[in-house]
Design a protein that fits this description.
Elements: H1 5-22, E1 31-32, E2 39-40, H2 42-58, E3 63-66, E4 80-88, H3 90-94, E5 101-108, E6 111-119, E7 124-129, E8 134-136, E9 139-140, E10 153-155, E11 174-176, H4 181-189, E12 195-198, E13 202-203, H5 204-217, E14 220-222, E15 237-238, E16 241-244
Parallel strand pairs: 3-4, 10-11, 10-12
Antiparallel strand pairs: 1-2, 4-5, 5-6, 6-7, 7-8, 8-9, 12-16, 13-15, 14-16
Length: 246
Amino acid sequence: MPATDLDLLIDAAHRAAEVATRHIGGPLDIREKPGGQGPVTAADLAVNEVLADTLLSARPAYGWLSEESAHDPTRTLAPSTFIVDPIDGTRSFIDGDDIWAHSLAVCDGNEITAAVVYLPLVDKLYTASKGHGAYLNGAPIAPSARTGLEGAHVLATKPNMAPKFWPNGVPNVRRSHRPSLAYRMCLVAEGRFDAMFTFRETWEWDIAAGALVVQEAGANVTDGKGAALRFNSEAAKADGVWAGVK
């Protein structure tokens, strides 16, 4: 049995990658989730199954929150909870692109204490544990030194640059996009971009792992209004997310 939660998450991420990559080029049985929540594939469900088996068999007392599992209200009573997105970037996976990730985290109370974001097709393994820094493929990472948003290179969708979100005026930034929220956060953590943000409600499984990677790398991370992120809530949602420069 892995000695630490982080070791367990790393092992689980590699097992998830083995399952996901076996589905590439095969039938995906793509379905749309109700309520406009996007597509789900046979790969998402298979990865979810192997993650649940790997993680919960090792830590049976932990709660479980996953995009591809029914919500369990008793998870908030558990000593710790796994928060996972089996495939973050399902549309990218469906399109045959390589930017999708397994996003895995452990939450103690309301705080993330261990996190892994793994992009198997581009060989990027981001890891973090509370108080011990953030790493990419075993090497420590750090954010950019930029202290202001003006002139920054940011990761955000075009709707997030609408004037209604910027009462003091839309900042002059260079905008890019990546399909995985977790990966966007990790790119900020390693200093390749100065900030990422979304002002829409965000599911916890999309940002839990990335939030700790950002925090442990030394960057700022909050919800979309600047408040501290708190995880394993009953609603399992955050009011947006902001990572990087203030």
